[in-house]
Amino acid sequence: MLIKMKNKIYLAILLGSVLTFGSCKKFLEVVPETSLSSATFFKTQSDFQQAVNAAYVPLRAITNNNAWVLEEMHSDNTYYPRNPLFGAVDNTENVADFAVPTAGGITTNTNVRDLYRQEYLIISRTNQILFSIDDVDFDQASKDNIKGQAYFLRAYAYFELVRLFGKVPLHLTPVTNREEAALPLSPVDSIYLQIKSDASQAISLLPVKSKQEAGRATSGAAAT
Known about the structure:
mainly alpha, Serine Threonine Protein Phosphatase 5, Tetratricopeptide repeat, two-stranded antiparallel ribbon, 10 helices, 4 strands
């Protein structure tokens, strides 16, 4: 008798659980509190200041590691001699000799790959700033300055990309899934029109050099 009673109790609990979960139409979605995301981060002026600081960071790798290889080594301004004591330098020599190997249009040359990725890292970070900043209320002059820097950096990144690669994907909003990341290549003319638009926005929003914090983009830089 006791076993039958227990079985009935278990069956009642099981049926109650099934009915409870079966009738539930919405599930609780909790943003992780131990990690930062766009859903939780962009709340204050300080958050956007940190974000625009991060948008400058790829410039270090671009200018120190890759830009001089893809630009100067690809021109008549320099000559690249192999130094056998320096180690493997095929990636640099290939660029200098216009002999970058490709397979199906894809190259494993790290100088090409890394610069391309770093430029789109700038674009990704500035897109997130420009997408989110108008929804947060803080000092308008500071907001304009941050927006101006973001427009300038995005224009800079696309200017580098279009000169080196020609047609490239034109991302102007944050990418939220894998499908959105695979945009088709945009024509060169469209890229230059966007660069001009972003630079014009930056000119109108950024302060002149004498009123800007050292090291940040200015209206004069955007005009150039």
